[in-house]
Each structure stands twice: as C-alpha cells, then as structure tokens.
Amino acid sequence: MDEIIRWSAVETAKALAKGDVKVAEVTRAHLDRVAQCEPGLRAVVDPLDEAAMAQAEEMDANRPKDLPALWGLPVTIKTNVDFEGHTNPNGIPALNEAICERDAPVVRNMRAGGAVVIGRTSTPEFSLRFFTSNPIWGRTLNPWDKGLTSGGSSGGASSAVACGMGVMAHGNDLGGSLRYPAYCVGGATLRPSMGRVPAFNPSAPAERPPLLQSMSVQGVIARSMGDVRLSYDVLRRRSSDDPLWNAAPDSGRAREDSPRRVGWCVDPFGDGVDSDVARAVEAAVGAAKQAGYEPVEVTPPMAAEAAQTWGLLLNTEIKVMMLESIRKMGSEAVNGLIDTMLELYPPQDVAGLLQAQARRLTIQREWARMFDYVDALIMPVSSLPPMRADQDFEEPESVPGIMKAQRFMHVGNLLGLPAATVRTLDAAPIPLGVQVVGDRMDDVICLDVAEAIERELALDLGPIDPR
Fold first, then answer.
1. Which of 286, 275, 224, 284 is nearest to 424 (CA)?
2. H or E element in which residue 264 lies
3. How many CB atoms lie within 10 A of CB 95?
4. How many separate helices (H) and strands (E) can be counted in the chain?
C-alpha cells in the first residue's frame, strides 16, 4: 500500500497501462489508506469498498485493448452531486435520505473515463462556506495541521487527496470551492471555464438558479498539475443534461509563439497580503520566467468591483431562491453565517440585479482586453494562509475579514474565467500556492503555465501522513 498510494495519478495510470499492477491492487491500496485515515479525518465519509473492489476485479478480468485516460484510477466524489444508489445530502441531515436514481454528468464522465470511485467526500451545509463541517459527519480535518481548515466547500476532497485516499477528488467551485481547498493542502486544481464541464443533478426538484448556472463549475483536486491535466478531457465530455455546455476549444485570441507574457499581481485590491502569500507569488513569477515566460506586472481591472458584484448577485439569488430552504433545513450556525453574508452583500431589487448583471459584462470586457496583452495572470488565491478550522462559526466577528481575504477567487467566478491553483512555496505549517487565471476558454493555457511553474520549482507533491 505504501508505495502505490504515493504514486501520482499519471504514475498510477502508466503502471496500470504497462500491467505492472492490477486495478484491484491499486483500489485495495487506496481503500486500505481510507481505513487507515478514517474516521479520524472525516474526509471520505462514505467509503465504497464493496462496489469499488467488484468494479476493479471486473476491469482486471475484462481489460480493454484501448484504455481510457482514467482507467483503474481511484477517485472520490463530493457529496453534493448525484451518485446513483446513494444520497446527495450537501451537508444537510434532512437531505440525507432520498436515494439518487442516476449519476450527475461529471460522475458519468469520470466513470466512462475508467475511474474507480472508492468513496464520497464531505461538504459543509449547502456548500456555502470556506470551511468543511456539517451536522451529519462533523468537522473535516486538514491532514497538514488539524487546527486549520482544509478549505470549503470541497474540504473533504482536498483532505482525502492530500493524504493518499484516491489520486484525484471531484469538487465544484462557486466562490473558490476548488481553488481554496487545494490551496489549503498544497494541492493542485483547475477551476474550468464556465460551461466547460457539464453540470446537472437529476434528483433536484428544480433547475439550478440562474446565477449558479453562470458562476459554478465542476472539476477535480489532485496533488499535481499533471494529474489535473489527465482528467481534463474526460471531465469536459458533452452531456445533453447540460444545455449550457460549451465546446469552444479556446478563447480564439491571437497567440504569440515566443516569448509568452504572463501577468502577475500580488495585491490587486490594495489592502495588503500576508508576507508568505507574497512570497508564493514571487516564487511563481520566478519559476515562470525560468520556464521561458516573460513576466509583466499588471493591475487587473475593476477587481474590487468584480468581487463586490459577485457577492451582490449571489446573495440576491440566495434570498429569493434558497433562503427559505436554509431557514428550514440549516443549522443555527449556518443561518447566522448567512445573515452576516446578507449584510455584507445586500440583496438587490430588480433594478439593482439587472444593473449588476449589465455591469458584469463591462468588467468581463476589461479583463478580456487585459488578456490581449498577457496570456495568463498569476495572483494569490487568498490574502491569508489557511484559516483556523470553523473560524466563521466560532468567531462570527471575523467573517467580514474572511470574505475580504477571499476576493481573489470571487473575480473568476463572476467573470466565468478558468483558474489553476498550483503549489509554489513550502511554508510552515502548510505549503502555499497561487492561482493562474486565464481568458475565457483558455483552460489549457492555465494548465500550461501552472504545470511549467510546478516543473521548475520541483517541490515534493507526494501524499502526507496525517499529523
């Protein structure tokens, strides 16, 4: 087990392709790792030993001639998307009863790509926090430092993959829920462009609200950018369940052959960042330069307005379309958090909502013009290192500061931009990283730049033993 769980997804795929190891061996090793780490971390809260081993043995017995990209790779699925034969509770006890009849498109795509689902991971109530705890399974711990958050809302996913419970973990991102959990464990991810990966929950009683349709995406967290890239073509396969799926190969803008320009900015809001956060950006810029990119310091346009607009639009939708359910099914703590959020980003009337939507296009245009000049933008994920676990619940007075620190991610959600998170600094107690933001549909450029940075820095990206 010790050797197998330390392989990256790419290394595992190569070993399986060459026949050096069987799918059942890989699956068993990762399930044993789950048993070793759980229920202590409360990350993989629904292990699927029997189903996973049955699938693995069937795959070994009927090995295809042409192996799909994820063939035999052990993965986890977040408990806020439909998974056939199981519940989709989203951290809410009242929803932990109805059994889903079929898979969400992202699950179908991962299965079709050959992945073996070994378990499902925890999420906070309604997937609306940067911390992962809920009344069903309790607090998910960060394997680097159990006093710190593993991120949210994909904190179960990040904690699992960081310590070798699967080679990649499904997650989603409405306000940073892929990027922040990856950041909190020194991991890697890509928030894809809007529409790139199909999204739909067949069990949902109604369609996703309009702003979730335009700001929330599906993806994976892994330990390296190469592993994230391995999943990319699998995740983005078309599904008729999502009419908003987009097949555009890239942004369509002209691309220079050499040198490539990469923009960078430490503090687009002018409020200051932690010194280690600044060092993480500096390390990324230096690595990009070594990889042949030309770094250009830039000031991202209208960043503060973009982050504020994200909050106004989201909270307007929450008040109109979600608040009744939150009041009815949410805990006292999550309702208190929502009250604070509604004060920070006041819901708009119809005129305010339409004006904010129109203003979003203005901001999108200005960012598109910035990408006429640079291929991608290196910037922090957060202005702070990972925060204390459940800080938002235990220190309600800190919530305004928390939201201020996380604005770096909200811009990408508002504008529908792709953004990769990559580790760049081995700080204590947790490694830190940056995000590489690209123009709409330029997901591959984000992957290229982030992977080049990772390659130049050559940090140890292997799984860790929980501390």
1. 284
2. strand 260-264
3. 19
4. 17, 13
Residue 124's pLDDT is what? 98
CA distance 394 to 87: 29
Residue given tokens 């044993």 in the structure block? 32
Burial of 205: CB neighbours in 10 Å, binned 0-12, 13-18, 19+: exposed
Q: What's the angle, vertex CA 72, arms to CA 70 and CA 127, rounded to 5? A: 65
**Which positions are annotated as active-site residues?**
78, 153, 177
Torsion of CA 324, 325, 326, 328, to 10 degrees: 90
CA angle 385, 456, 30 (to 5 degrees): 65
The length of the chain is: 467
Phi, psi dihedrals of residue 47, rounded to the nearest 5°: -65, 145
**The two three-digit tokens of residue 76, written as one number:** 């986890």
> CA-to-CA distance for 402 and 383, rounded, in angstroms?
9
Whether residue 264 contacts residue 379, with contact meaning beta carbons closer than 8 Å, is answered with: yes
Say if CB 458 and CB 218 are below 8 A apart.
Answer: no
pLDDT given for residue 257 in this prediction: 62
Q: Give the chain's residues under pLDDT 50.
A: none
92 Cβ neighbours under 8 A, 6+ residues apart: 125, 126, 134, 135, 136, 329, 330
Neighbours of 321 (CB within 10 A): 16
Task: For 282-330, write each residue's pLDDT tens digit.
Answer: 999 999 999 999 999 999 999 999 999 999 999 999 999 999 999 999 9
The owner of tokens 């989203």 is: 90
List of residues 6+ apart from 61 with CB closer than 8 A: none
Q: Is 313 within 8 Å of 356 (Cβ atoms)?
A: yes
Q: Are 156 and 190 in contact (CB under 8 A)?
A: no
Question: Backbone dihedral region of 272: left (phi > 0), alpha (psi from -120 to 50 degrees) or beta?
Answer: left
How far is the CA of 283 from the CAs of 136, 381, 427, in angstroms?
Answer: 40, 14, 12
- In the prediction, which pLDDT does 255 show? 67
Q: What are the tokens at 25?
A: 């061996």
Verdict on whether the full-model pTM lies above 0.85: yes
**CA atoms of 221 and 39, how far apart (whole Å):** 21
Q: Alpha-carbon distance 283 to 302, whole Å?
A: 25
Name the residue with tokens 């050959």. Answer: 114
168-196 residues labelled b (16+ CB within 10 A) or e (exposed)? bbbbbbbbbbbbbbbbbbbbbbbbbbbbb
Instruction: Report how far residue 122's alpha carbon sits from residue 137's, in angstroms, rounded to the nearest whole number.
Output: 7
